[in-house]
Specification:
This protein is mainly beta. About 0% of the residues lie in helices and about 50% in strands. It has strands spanning about 1-5, 10, 15-25, 35-40, 45-50, 55-60, 65-70, 75-80, 90-95, 105-110.
């Protein structure tokens, strides 16, 4: 299993970013995928999940209505569209296949003016 996150950066409050996660080494389309984040001094938390079979999505209350998780199974890629970003969204963001223990290197998102 290999997961490579990209798309992070520095953005002003209220701005947008789209994160990508390129997956390989497993049958991507069959697996539920999640985005997690870890802020300095805090535990890693689940941000959003998209189920493999149904495409149904689930979000943490803190990002509901602002973030959108999606996937392109033909490209083995997971996305996280982040809008109306807030300083408290600052963290390293990771993608993960729910049934595997592997993590990517993460991508840093910093929301600051």
């Amino acid at each position: 299993v290999q997961l490579v996150e990209s798309g992070g950066g520095l953005v002003q409050p209220g701005g947008s970013l789209r994160l990508s996660c390129a997956a390989s080494g497993f049958s991507f389309s069959q697996y539920t995928m999640s985005w997690y984040r870890q802020a300095p001094g805090k535990e890693r938390e689940m941000v959003a999940t998209i189920f493999g079979a149904s495409g149904r999505t689930n979000y943490a209350d803190s990002v509901k209505g602002r973030f959108t998780i999606s996937r392109n199974n033909a490209k083995n890629t997971l996305y996280l569209q982040m809008d109306s970003l807030k300083p408290e969204d600052t963290a390293v963001y990771y993608c993960k296949a729910v049934l595997f223990d592997d993590w990517g290197q993460g991508t840093q998102v910093t929301v600051s003016s």
